[in-house]
Amino acid sequence: MKPYIILGIVQPGLEDLACQELEQLGITKYFKLKGGVEFVGHQSALIKCNLMCRIFSRFVIRLDSFIATTFRELDAKLNNLPWNYYIVNQKVCFHINSVSSKLYHEKAIAMTLIAFLNKACKHEIEIVGSPDEPDTQLVIVNVKNNQFTISLDSSGIHLHKRGYMPWREKAPLRETTASAMLRCIPDSDKPIIDPMCGAGTILIEKAVQAKKQPLSLFRDFTFQNWSLFQEDTFKQVEAFFMEKVIENPRIVLKGSDIDEKSIKTCKFNAESAGVSDIIDFEVKDIADYLGTLKRHIIVTNPPYGVRVKGVHLIGKLTKLASKNEVYFLHPLKHRTGDTLFTTNNGAITVHYQKIR
Ligand SMILES: C[S@@+](CC[C@H](N)C(=O)[O-])C[C@H]1O[C@@H](n2cnc3c(N)ncnc32)[C@H](O)[C@@H]1O
């Protein structure tokens, strides 16, 4: 079987950190794009990335790339593709984008694909609007200057949905962004603290990473539905990483929030992720750390004053920075902050900064 061309999709701004993850998994040849990283690998690489990468949003494989300027031509080209390796009984979701091409009508392209797949699979395929529906195969079609590129998602539900954070709070952070934030802090014995921890995303992410737990412990992936799915390879890759799981990592993690309900959420989520034994959560105002907190690494996502009020809290972080290392994600640039990356949190542009 030929290797796949794999595209790891990543939030713009996090590409360099995502490449570091690939390198740690032994994938050293890649091509960095805006919002993605392309590389070549067999199904074992695809499985490894889905199980162990923490910053990527999803991994897709390139099925084919061809020129088509008429629907008849498109139908003929679709016929050459090995659909039956991948689509069996799954529901299908299409993401189609066409620019500067003769076949510009995205709905008409979708109709051609649906008619084709119904014929190829010998039954009526169920089409759904979201790739997050269970047992759904996302098919991505990009058309530019008449060049069609057809890709199939291998991940399923967006990878930031780890499967171990059942409860959310106001203004949550994506786990993929939390992972990027954590990758920027030094390896150290210092305790890590999030004093405005909301649902606990950053600390629970750090705890799962410290235990080296593969994501397959918590969720499924689309590639498991492919007829070409190599179950033995999956089991081997999973067993390889399971052997490396550390039950009691040497790490001190503390979380606090002024909101009592958030702390209940944190405890529930940490329990669900199997990391409640290595994180302490408590209800506390960040102001109560002033003058007492020393030699900690603070990693946090304070309120932005848009979804949750409280821009003034950055002043408290600035004071804490005299005796601690402070890293925070915020739309405002700090006057003595070194920006480590800039990305989006929802519709808001945010900067991850270390206070000098
Ligand atoms: C943007 S949210 C953090 C979201 C969190 N990273 C997550 O993923 O769920 C900011 C948090 O700061 C908390 N907060 C606001 N003022 C605070 C204060 N004075 N002391 C401690 N926490 C505070 C809010 O209750 C809220 O949970």
Walk me through what this model shows:
With about 350 residues, this protein is α/β, with parallel strands linked by helices. The chain has 2 domains: about 5-155, VC0802-like, CATH 3.30.2130; about 175-210 and about 230-355, Rossmann fold (3-Layer(aba) Sandwich), CATH 3.40.50. The chain has 9 helices and 14 strands. The chain has helices at about 15-25, 45-50, 70-80, 105-120, 175-185, 200-210, 230-240, 260-275, 315-320, and strands at about 5-10, 30-35, 35-40, 60-65, 90-100, 135-145, 145-155, 190-195, 255, 280-285, 295-300, 325-330, 335-345, 350-355. Strands 2-3-1-4-7-6-5 form a 7-stranded mixed β-sheet, covered by helices on one side. It has a 7-stranded mixed β-sheet with strand order 10-9-8-11-12-14-13, with helices on both faces. A hairpin with a 2-residue loop joins strand 6 and strand 7 (about 145-155). Helix 2 packs across helix 7. The longest helix is centred in the N-terminal third of the chain and has 16 residues, at about 105-120. The protein is elongated. The protein starts with a strand and ends with a strand. The mean pLDDT is about 95. S-adenosylmethionine binds near residues 198, 259 and 310.
- Helix count, per DSSP? 9
One letter per element, helices H and strands E, the order comes to: EHEEHEHEHEEHEHHEHEEHEEE
Overall, the morphology is elongated
Which fold name corresponds to the CATH topology of the largest domain?
Rossmann fold
Q: Helix share of residues?
A: 25-40%
What is the CA–CA distance across the termini?
52 Å
Q: Quote the beta fraction.
A: 25-35%
Number of E strands: 14
Side by side, the strands of the main sheet go 2-3-1-4-7-6-5
The radius of gyration is 22 Å
Query: CATH H level of the largest domain: which superfamily?
Result: Vaccinia Virus protein VP39
